[in-house]
Amino acid sequence: MLCNPCGCFQIPLNWVELSIELSCRILFYFIFYLGTVRLQGGKNEFEGTVEVYLNGMWGTVCGSHWDNDDATVVCRQLALGEKGTAKHVPFSGLGLTPVYWNEVRCRGDEENILLCEKDIWHDGTCPQKIAAAVTCSSSLAPVFTPVRLAGGNNTHEGRVEVYHAGQWGTVCDDQWDDADAEVVCRQLGLGGVAKAWSQAYFGEGSGPLLLDEVQCTGNELSIEQCPKSSWREHNCDHKEDAGVSCTPLTDGALRLSSGKGSHEGRLEVYYTGQWGTICDDGWTELNTQVVCRQLGFKYGKRAPESYSEGSSGPIWLDDVSCSGKETNLLQCSWRGWGKHDCNHHEDVRLICHPDNDNHKLTLGKAPLC
């Protein structure tokens, strides 16, 4: 009886059995040893010089073109987090260590550094005399599912795609709302006004549908921390791909606050780093249509008095008058910033509506500032 990591085997009775056993041993070697990575010489387990196991020996990687995408793959492979920072260490302090690879070119989403493009050095030298090293995020910190935006007109918007088990895929828009969008924008490092989009607003994806029923509170640091379906469990198709926009906060940005969802509430405008309200003096239905259109809705109406929760911030605009053709509220006529004769009982409150019954209302809390 022979035992190894592939299992236990009877002593081979013929060459067929021997071939099977040898194949299993070779497969085990390639999976568990060839390309094994470790970090050496760091202050803790989350940093150090990158070493790979090849030809029965540990060796280093030349630091030429070594970047954060390469470092991220190493950190993910070692289960030390989903983000890595590329570092470089002089060879002078490493001793007689062979150099195996040069110019590693990872995309950043590979599961193993073996899957990255690279140049193999046959002479074992590195002209730059620097070795690749990394610093990984602590394993005690939340491990984030990689997220990206695709199909938008700029880097601040697009179809939400997440990375899992070696594939990028989309998110179904069931339960998708502005609280979910807030988390995605935060995870991507994008500030501003977060807005959820449904029904493949930014185009249909082509990969698998990976998540459904995402229900963030809006306070999570990563979509991974939100209640959601199990991976690949859904009842959707790509016509329901979820999207987000993370509109940068500039003077004149609008939001609806303190309502039952992001489609209703007190109208607030952003100016000089602070959200403030708009007085209802002279407010017309044409003004409402301009605002709702700017917020991504088709039409709207004034909210009833039951939505009259007060504000403690500044009153930024008064005497606003729109023709209805404007694409931005600041294109309408109004008094200067902060000039008014109102109090917060006169704050404008609106309810915006989608363009048809199939478009979901994007519910959620107003973004925090």
Automatic annotation (TrEMBL):
Coiled coil start-end: none
InterPro entries per the UniProt record, alphabetical: SRCR, SRCR-like_dom_sf
Main location: secreted
Keywords: Disulfide bond, Glycoprotein, Repeat, Secreted, Signal
Location of the protein in the cell: Secreted
Record bears the keyword Lyase: no
Entry GO CC: extracellular region; membrane
Cystine connections: C62-C126, C75-C136, C106-C116, C172-C236, C185-C246, C216-C226, C322-C332
Protein name (record): SRCR domain-containing protein
Organism: Amazona collaria (yellow-billed parrot)
